[in-house]
Each structure stands twice: as C-alpha cells, then as structure tokens.
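Forum: Protein Structure Q&A
Topic: Joint prediction for protein chains with partners

I've read a bunch of threads here and the consensus seems to be that you should model interacting components together rather than docking separate models afterwards. I'd like to see that in practice. Below is the full input, 228 residues plus whatever partners are listed. Could one of the regulars post the assembled result?
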Amino acid sequence: NAGVMQNPRHLVRRRGQEARLRCSPMKGHSHVYWYRQLPEEGLKFMVYLQKENIIDESGMPKERFSAEFPKEGPSILRIQQVVRGDSAAYFCASSPPMGQGSNQPQHFGDGTRLSIL
Amino acid sequence: QQQVKQSPQSLIVQKGGISIINCAYENTAFDYFPWYQQFPGKGPALLIAIRPDVSEKKEGRFTISFNKSAKQFSLHIMDSQPGDSATYFCAAGTGRRALTFGSGTRLQVQP
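Posted by a regular:
Agreed with the consensus. Here's the joint model:
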C-alpha cells in the first residue's frame, strides 16, 4: 500500500494517560500535516512538519500536544494527560517535495480514532 | 477571515440527478481549492482541485465552478450514483500551507 499509513486505527485511553499517534507519509513525500476532526465537523489543522522541522504549529493547543517528524521513521503526534475533549479522529496528510512554494495536493490517511474513557 | 463556509449541510438527490455543493471564502490569499470525498471510517480522498486562474475544471462526472469576484466555488456531480453517497468537503489553501476546510455536506443519492 503506497498510501499514507496511520496507526493505530483505534486507540482507547483513560483520562490522564498519553496517546501516541503515528503517521508514515506516502513514499517520496517529505511534508506532513496533522488535522483533527470532531463528529459531524470538518477537519481542523493542527501542525505542518517537514523532516526534522516544525513549519507551522498554529493550530496545535499550546499544552499537552506535541508533534515530530524525525529524519528516520514516522511522524508522531503525542497527546499527554488526555482529557475527554481530546476524543476525535486525527488525520495525517502528506505532500511531495517538488515545486517549492507551489500548491501540492495533500493525500490523507484513514485516521486514528481516539476515544478517552 | 480564514473561514470557508459550505452549504448545504445535507443533500438528497435522485439517481441520475445533479448534486450541487457550494462554498464561499473570505481570504483573498487563498490560491488552491480542492474538494475531498469522505466515506464513513475512511480518510478524505482528493476528488478534484482548481486554481483561481480558471473558472471551471471538469474531471469525469465532477466539475468545479469558480467565481473569483464573488469568492465562491462549487462542486457539481453529474449523473449522481448511489456510490457517490458520502460526505464532501471543500477546502482552501495557500502555497504549501494548511488547508482550511468547510464543514462538510452529507450527500445521499437515492436509487
């Protein structure tokens, strides 16, 4: 499967625990975006990363949330001390490196559904 | 100013009919307007996209119409089929930056 891979598909955590969501971009893609989707709503941007760099984190809550995209391995979205309001579907998208500054289509994975008990 | 407003919230169309979904934006810096289709339990899949230098783009049964002066764009699905039943999202973006999504339209095509 050459698409964007996210895991786990479903994650259940108790309040106060940590959640780690992983995203492997499409082959050859070096730009990763994380979005959050609440039920019956559109996707809301959280963070945009390139390899080893955070480009834009304007949509990410200032506390408890962090993201990384290391030189090797998948991008990780980490949520510490989860609360009920963190329950949502988290989607990762990737885009290719060509055409610096130009529009590049974002291709999405199937998401991680996070449930907080 | 970053909002993208999408309507209608839900739409029921008979098989073979035309489905029309509308979006409006405020930020004139937006220069990329994609449409995504999402099935339950799946991620959004890119359907078709347009840039503001053209007024219309067609791919198969899907057409985007773009009105730059009105800051509006719409998706037309011709000869709608039951398999088109899904949620459709419009979005807008600038360069490589994050996409701003509309709130979605749940389309149901009745056989």
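The mean pLDDT of chain B is 94.
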